[in-house]
Amino acid sequence: MHIRGDHAELVVGGRLDVRSAADARTALHSAVDDGAGDLVLDLSELDSWDATGLGVIMGAHRRAGRCGRRLVLRGVPPQMQRLLVATRLHRILAIEGGIGVESLPRV
User: Fold this and answer.
1) Bridge partners, residue 14, by sequence
2) pLDDT tens, 1-28?
């Protein structure tokens, strides 16, 4: 997993899972704490995430809210969009461009 960017936009790539969760959490919390306004999280280079990785995203979302910021997801890959819809998290998280639920293939 790799994260690059600053306190306004981060690009996450690779796998966001139990092995990379601690490093990702640290990077996201630092970005939230050090900036102002929206924090854009570009997931277009993300290969996969597991429940732990999704928990890291939700933790960053909650922390951003407490800091008066908003976490915005950009470039969410289709398989991860399906997971957000299945867990109904697409209703809670800010997703740039939204998710066309009707256009996602049924699983």
Assistant:
1) 46
2) 888 888 899 999 999 999 999 999 999 9
Q: Give residue limits of the domains in the chain.
A: 1-93
Phi first, then psi: what are they for 99, rounded to 5°?
Answer: -120, 125
In what side-by-side order are the strands of the sheet with 39-49?
A: 2-5, 9-16, 39-49, 71-74, 94-95
Identify whether the C-beta of residue 77 lies closer than 8 Å to the C-beta of residue 43.
yes
Sign of CA pseudo-dihedral 97, 31, 93, 73: positive
Assigned fold of 1-93? Transcription Regulator spoIIAA (3.30.750)
Q: Are 39 and 31 spatial neighbours (Cβ–Cβ below 8 Å)?
A: yes
Q: What is the DSSP letter of 106?
A: P
Question: Which residues does the chain have with pLDDT short of 70?
Answer: 100-107
- Residue 68, classed as helix, strand or coil, is coil
